[in-house]
Amino acid sequence: MNIPKDKIIDMIRSRGDHDQAEQAQAELPDQVDTDQHSDLLSKFNIDPKNLGGGLGGLGDKIGL
Question: Residue 3's beta-bridge partner residues?
C-alpha cells in the first residue's frame, strides 16, 4: 500500500514526537510503500500491518 508521506508525518506529530516527525520528513520518500519501506516505518515506531483500514486500523485514523 502506498501512503503519502504527509499522512505519516501527521501521524507522528499527533503522537507529540516533533523531532521524530522532522527526521521522518527528511528520510521518507514522497510516497511511502508499506512493503518496500517497512524498515523506515519501523524506525519511526510505525507497524505497516497496522496502517490498513477497517476496524480501528491506523489507516482509518489517518484517512486512508
Answer: 32
pLDDT digits (tens, 9 = 90+) for 7-62: 999 999 999 999 999 999 999 999 999 989 999 999 999 988 877 643 344 555 55
- Do 7 and 14 form a contact (C-beta atoms < 8 A)? no
Asked whether the beta carbons of 13 and 45 are under 8 A apart, the reply is: no
For the whole prediction, is pTM greater than 0.90? Answer: no
Distance in angstroms (rounded) separating the CA atoms of residues 32 and 52: 13
Tell me the three state secondary structure of residue 38.
helix
Domain ranges for the chain: 2-61
